[in-house]
Design goal:
Layout: H1 13-27, E1 33-36, H2 43-53, E2 61-65, H3 71-79, E3 80-81, E4 94-95, H4 97-100, E5 105-109, H5 116-128, E6 130-131, E7 140-141, E8 145-150, H6 154-159, H7 165-171, E9 174-177, H8 188-203, H9 211-219, H10 225-239
Parallel strand pairs: 1-8, 1-9, 2-5, 5-8
Antiparallel strand pairs: 3-4, 6-7
Helix pairs in contact: 1-2, 8-10
Length: about 240
Amino acid sequence: YEVNRKGVIGGSESFSAVLRVASKLAQMEVSNLLLRGESGTGKGLLAKYIHKCSNRRDRSFIQINCAALPDNLLEAELFGYEEGAFTGAKAGGKVGLIELSHGGTLFLDEIGELPLSLQGKLLKYFDDHEVMRLGGIETKKVDCTIIAATNRDLEHLIRKKRFRRDLYYRINTFTLKVPPLRKRSEDVFDLVNYYLDSYNKKFGTEKKISLAAFEVLQNYRFPGNVRELKSIIKKGVVLS
């Protein structure tokens, strides 16, 4: 089976077209990329692929899930803080993820979940490429490629006044739509074999998949996309 360059799996025309554009954007050092697609389609993997294809491949790839932390912690993680900036701030302060991404790539996953209170501050970074830590008085120039991803309808969030229109125009200078697995069923064979081999090695087994089982998978619509397929193969290797 074929595993495409940089560890990305799948050779269907729809997915290969996305990879071709992603590779070109990476090589031209463009920033402000927005990856759109359903949950589980592999937007995080595509972001890493773009980083590996770029001239920044040897620098940091920093990823944060915008839905994973409360507002105040998310701000501290992104922008960092100085010592004494708030109760519980550790001695010496902390460097933010944007600063850590200097020279590399910052991946903002689930950007649609970013709270409004932070959207304005992130927009300011897009405008002047400077960050100021919480409790700080000095700004610092940061040069990094920013890739954002979402499975949300950002246009709907804008109409509901839950996402800033000006930030939307900043993050989607270039947009890549990752097709759902049901629209690239040709890739199911590669994915099944890849994860079957991977989990056999992990669990010390030699499980195989029958033709009948494979046909069931190929005709399945995978509402959870690649994440769901991965889970199915893992359970099959462990429990069959």
